[in-house]
Amino acid sequence: MEKRISLNGTWHFKEAYSSEWYEGEVPGCVQLDLMRLGEIDDPYYRMNEVKFHKLEEKEWVYRKEFDFDEKDKDEFDAIKLIFEGIDTFADIYLNDMHLGKAQNMFMLYEFDVKDIIKHGKNVLEVHFDSITKTIKAMEQTSPVNLAWSGERGRPYVRKAQYSFGWDWGPRIVQVGLWRGVYLSLVKYAEIKNPYFYTEKIEQNKAYVVLSAEIEKYIKKDLEAEIEIIHNDTSYGKKREKVQKNKIKTTMLIKNPKLWYPNGIGEQPLYDIRIRLLAGEEIIDERNFRSGIRTVKLIREKDEEGETFIFEINGIKVFAKGANWIPADNLLPRLTKEDYYEYIRLAKDANMNMLRIWGGGIYEDPAFYDACDEMGIMVWQDFMYACAQYPDQFEWFQELAKEEAEKVILTLRNHPSIVLWCGNNENNWGFHSWWNNKDPKYLGNYIYKEILPKVCARLDPSRPYWVSSPYGGEDPNSESEGDRHQWNVWSGWVDYEEYTRDRGRFLSEFGFQSMPDWKTVLSYTAPEDRTILSPVVISHNKMVEGMERLIRFMVGHLGFPKDLKSFVYLSQFNQAEAIKTGVEHWRSRKFKTGGTLYWQFNDCWPVASWSCIDYYKRKKALYHYSKKFYAEILPYIKKEDGGITIYGISDLTCDEEVDVAIKVFKLNGEKIAEKHLKTKLIANDVTKIAHYQIEELNIGYRAKEMPIAIPGCTLPIEENGELLNSVIYLEIIANRKTYENYKVFDRFRNLNLLQPRISYEIAEKKIVLETDIPAFGVFIETDNDVELSDNCLNMMPNKKYEIKCSQNPENVKVFDITQLIANI
């Protein structure tokens, strides 16, 4: 039986060699406490982040005085002091007794304090070393030279690697008790590390395994009563004797309710209850939730190499989603409500997977709970990213092993987690950046020896993958494994290159944009609001990030009129880029098994690859994601001398659908319309129709266009009629319409006209209509209204209804023609 006493709330803190104490908060960090006291400015405004760098050399002390009742000491057999998160190097003292050292941000620390805690006032102190001083000393005295990205010493510390700065985040080296602190008082015995997983599902029966460890303080024989419950209905109850301080049993669940990813099925969660009994007396109880599901990674040889497909409960699932980074550089600010809102946004965007990137953190319990409830599969990296790590040393091996064990024991009951992955890009780095091929150490011992063994021992329910990317002689191969496509954007290659990529699973690819205009206003002063001002540049952490935004914007759209136009045009360009890649890879289903674009969220207000910015404001890419990740994707491809219409379906059953193809000139004249009925094949790609250009009433009119070829740009004859046309495609299934469109050149080469867009504002909705084809139609409001859609590509004379979270104020509507400068 356990009793918990929280030690969260008000603590006091000071610089290590100062006599002046200040009030602080736990969970929290030094940076947040100093901000709260007004001692340091908001690091996210202008270039204030540099003011935080001076804190890195300092040492800190946090202190908590609390009362303890002697009766509790006599009544309970064990008293433990639990730290859920210490960031990072610290010595812990209770009543002047040294309990131990912390050196890993990611691990829970537990100390036996029964003989140290006393009646009345107790004093708990945590003495924090300077992280940067400590790791610099480690790096300077190390006999091993490590390749790295950024801070030289960061591979030596088990701390969120992004805190030292990344190409989307500031350098803010957080210090403090970033997660909760409590006393655990245990009487008789305690249930520890419960584990529930699905061994197999066959003939409408699920065989599930449940185990736990028992920490005993009494000599009596104990039994465990195990019950599996869903919606107050018991699906099985069993008693097992505790043997060698463990319990393990297999149970049969008839007619199980299976957990599926978003869009495939529902997410029923079972309540798992374990009661520890001495005779008939309940001496401890543990309750948690989990799901019944199997996961398999299908890797089979085919004509292109080897597949990489997730299979859930026997159904192949095309992974649709994005990469997740920590949602703040000051982590204790994040709440349970924040996490649930983020995951709701992912679900509403028709995503079914998020990859937790290996340079961040093992996420808050609320993140995984929300994913369990909403059907978002989690690709879980271990926290190693873009560096060589010192696993030549036994102390680092032991630290890595202990971290992995604690992480897996904490997270393994979440059905949403479908993959453990050893690291981010390090094996690719061995091959392509650091020229050491496949070394025994430098991190590789962790990824190929320690982690697979720990995963197999503690969690047989899901696969382990060495790295991301990984597969083949070249870890970033197109023919097998997962792939990071960074030739586009990072390599200055334009996004049409996506359509030539035959990757088997795209776990990273991305294209930048500016954040929401209101967000730009939040971190700039009026004098900063130009495209290349120092402040605007400092809020794009990629080297030449702004230059790339300009290059690809001018290449596709033209020059923006001003900074605000630049913001919106960058978002439209980003959305079009990712749309191009996703549509191509979805059309290869299941030759390609999934697309996870970089990235879903931001850790501060910044120009980045995200689809929602730091304040959860949706960019154009978010709204595009809802369409290109929809369960049915209409797809128009120019091929074989004409236009092919495809229907890409993630539905688990064949579906009868209506199809409409409408062709307009850019001046609004409709020149063709075709309707047909067809059947979309379940979980597959269906070729619906093929038309020659002339069948769509598009003639030929010679037009000289400059075309880039190797070595020069030449004027080459193009079809001017085609460049003056847009095709809209609608697939109607179960009274729901899925839309797409296609134009036939870059927007800067099209003869775009400014549309007349009318709109009406009704109760919590905006209804729009345009007279001619309109692209990148943005809706802007003065208040922060959540819109069901934005950045629309509108067909003439069709009403578009946008739902609003509240009544919008001062609505403005504009398209890309109003943002492009005529110069």
Description:
The protein is of the alpha+beta class and 823 residues long. Helix content is 18%, strand content 36%. The protein contains 14 helices and 47 strands. A 6-stranded antiparallel β-sheet has the order 3-2-4-9-6-7. It has a 6-stranded parallel β-sheet with strand order 29-28-27-26-25-32. It has a 4-stranded antiparallel β-sheet with strand order 1-12-5-8, with no helix packed on it. The model has no long low-confidence stretch (mean pLDDT 96).
Indicate the topology:
Blueprint: E1 2-6, E2 9-15, E3 22-26, H1 30-36, E4 60-68, H2 70-75, E5 78-83, E6 90-94, E7 97-102, E8 109-112, E9 120-128, H3 131-141, E10 164-166, E11 169-171, E12 181-186, E13 189-202, E14 205-216, E15 223-230, E16 233-241, E17 246-254, E18 270-278, E19 281-290, E20 295-298, E21 301-302, E22 305-306, E23 309-312, E24 315-317, E25 319-324, H4 336-348, E26 353-356, H5 365-374, E27 377-381, H6 394-411, E28 417-421, H7 426-432, H8 444-458, E29 464-465, E30 483-485, E31 506-509, H9 517-523, H10 534-538, H11 545-556, H12 563-586, E32 594-597, H13 620-628, E33 632-639, E34 642-649, E35 655-665, E36 670-680, E37 685-692, E38 702-709, E39 712-719, H14 720-723, E40 725-733, E41 736-742, E42 757-762, E43 765-770, E44 774-780, E45 792-794, E46 800-803, E47 812-814
Parallel strand pairs: 25-26, 25-32, 26-27, 27-28, 28-29, 30-31
Antiparallel strand pairs: 1-12, 2-3, 2-4, 4-9, 5-8, 5-12, 6-7, 6-9, 10-11, 13-14, 14-17, 15-16, 15-18, 18-19, 20-23, 21-22, 23-24, 33-34, 34-37, 35-36, 35-40, 38-39, 40-41, 42-43, 43-46, 44-45, 44-47
Helix pairs in contact: 4-5, 6-8, 11-12, 12-13
